[in-house]
């Protein structure tokens, strides 16, 4: 395995001390910061000096940045005061309100949220995930064998993206012979292409789900799309548009973050071959390793809430209607909560990171995510002797998710 950085316990980011003068906090909404810069020193300064920081309206409406672990957790835990119904991501002012507001699972407040969540929750229980394990392992073996056969490949699209898409397609009832087509579409929709091409691919995905939805109306099956089509909330069926928005939510939620966490984790292991070999020698470390990869990658960069009544947070008074932005990677590197937060520690325990959120909207796919990551890393350790970088990795340019767009590697079979 190639070592691109010396294998030390030194921080990969974040300087040892935060500067006293305010860094350019407005850059947090500049996607370029995440592609070519380093947001960690800015977050660190904010945690130390202005943990609930006001950003005045510009391209985005005005909002508060929340950067400390305890404050982020407090917001997550109070779904009544901190609402999701007006969107959970920053949207440029020009884009208006989120069309999914009050309609998709992630963008619904209690009590409706509970009813909507219970329509789909059965597919994500420990039991359901366990029942899928053998199929997941089979799928991963095929993916890894194919990547090894290719010799050189892009770890992000050829490996990391495959398993989560396979799983969510299976849950949603996408027939096996249509999965490859959907995979190609999602690669275009979430890949590095031109925005117009990405948007066309997204439209085509929605078109596909319209068709699948009608098929399931005629012939219900044991899958998520049928559950959404036939399920009732407050005694009423969901509208067709609500079904589609929720399908989109599940597809994006189920694929994008796992891809980013797995490829970010792989990149970290490539920089720390000692950790990878340690994991190979002691598989008992796997659960802790998966949690540390989740904390370290914190791929959901921010989550937004809207204040429903005046409330105090971190010594600031927030008014009704204020937007609050939770910076997940910052909370997960808060030195007030984690020991040596800038060290990637394979054995970290406890590790109560917030990468999967918390409270009412805690990630529905959490169990699925942990299982997918474990199986993928296990299969790579078991059947691949060496993974080497063959070119520079390319980071995603976004303020919503962070991680890698591509990670060129060569994989050699054992
Ligand atoms: C590394 C992988 C993942 C990360 C980092 C992640 C992150 C998150 C976060 C931070 C939230 C909370 C959003 C909020 O509070 O507003 C969330 C919610 C959600 N996630 Fe995940 N997620 C991952 C994987 C998955 C997978 C595999 C699925 C589905 C198969 C999934 C489906 C969902 C859904 C449906 C919600 C909304 C839950 C609700 O509002 O009740 N996620 N996720």
UniProtKB/TrEMBL annotation:
The record lists the organism as Streptomyces hydrogenans
In terms of InterPro entries, this protein maps to: Cyt_P450, Cyt_P450_B, Cyt_P450_sf
Name listed for the protein in its UniProt record:
Cytochrome P450
Give the highest taxon in the source lineage. Answer: Bacteria
Q: Where is this region: Disordered?
A: 1-23
Q: So what family is this one in?
A: Belongs to the cytochrome P450 family.
**Gene3D superfamilies for the chain:** Cytochrome P450
